[in-house]
Amino acid sequence: MTLYLLPESNGILRPKLEKELRPGTLVVSHNYTIPGWETKEIRSERIRDGLDKEHSIYLYKK
After folding, report:
1. Each residue's pLDDT tens digit, 34-54
2. Which residues contact 52 (CB under 8 A, 6 or more apart)?
3. What CATH fold (topology level) applies to the domain 2-61?
């Protein structure tokens, strides 16, 4: 599952994810964490998107 929501929205969605996702499901969040979940891996990379911004990818496993 992929997410691109603010941490507040991820926090609201978290109980639903915990209830409905199967064990072992990978959840990838672009730029924002899921409060209360342990991050398995974080990758930060500078992407040439015309603005040369740095993007972070957070990987979680239920």
Report:
1. 999 999 999 988 777 777 778
2. 46
3. Rossmann fold (3.40.50)
